Amino acid sequence: MPTRKRDYYEVLGVHRDATEIEIKKAYRRIALETHPDRNPGDKEAEARFKEAAEAYEVLSDPDKRARYDRFGHAGVEGAGGGAGFGGFESVFEAFEDLFGGGFGFGRRGRSAGPRRGAHLKVELEIEFLEAARGVDKVIELERAEACEHCGGSGAAPDSEPVVCGMCRGRGEVTQTQGFFAIRTTCPACGGEGRRIERPCPECGGTGLRTRRRQITVKIPAGVEDGTRMRLGGEGEAGPHGGPPGDLFVFLRVRPHELFEREGDDIVCEVPITFAQAVLGAKIEVPTLEGTETIEIEPGTQSHTVVRLRGRGIPHLRGYGRGDQLVRLVVEVPRRLTEEQEALVRQLAEHDEAQVSPRRKSFLQKIKELLGGHGER
Q1: Which of 5, 156, 205, 334 is buried deepest, with most CB atoms within 10 A?
Q2: What secondary structure letter does DSSP report for 239?
Q3: For the residues of 335-346, what is the DSSP string, one character each?
């Protein structure tokens, strides 16, 4: 029986909302403790090292992390974080990404060009009727955007970044020691592959500035509590002119006073009087569009359900709507006037004189039960 994979956040010991820096620190600590060079022959340490490297490769990549958050391990199978990861080369490459060292596997240096920006996550609370009908909501957030002064390059307007002369744009330098070729992050450019000789005075050479923005979120009719919406390109800008990340909006739907949702159907409990249940009546009930008149049949029992076709929640992925279920609940008055009590007593006398078939059957079963006990 295959071993169940542990949650990647659990492996690194971080919360699900951990930042990239927190994830990097957690992996660095575990990798230093469990690295095979420090634990020769220790299979358990080697397994922990591989497990941590696999978790780091997924959680340090915004795209893979987003898929993992949504689909779990199935979302990253075959993408470096599932089946096909476990080889030593991939493990040590993840180690190299973090520490800048290498073990002579001949892997190419990572690209020093523009990188995609970070994804952002926000939680948005909406009303039940807004979720049912659809609504536009404006949210405010702070995000990193390309510096307008330098166009995101990080260099002063009258200058440009230059290719690093030490690593020739690769971001890494290689040193040979005996049989080993060790790669380390270029000390001259910090792994970027280029150097900014005259940094932009507005952003200090980062190419990014923090801005507060208002973004309109178009929420379609039919969303439910826990729905996640993805707004492409509304995340943070990428370093050095890279494409922006995405914005993920998690919806929270407030409960309603009258309606409850069951799939795409809604349930509304409506109280009726004893007289309405016995004699029948026409009453108005609330719906998502206002009120509607329904007819109560004479002799209606408590908790009878009346179905209003097509009065429920719009189908989020398709045409049509669910239904509204009106549950009729007969209310028994707690207090009666003398006149009301007298009328009820008269009714009770009639009930005793004219026993319904159902009640007659029930009373007969009681007699049989008691009779059976009496014989014993």
Answers
A1: 205
A2: G
A3: ---HHHHHHHHH
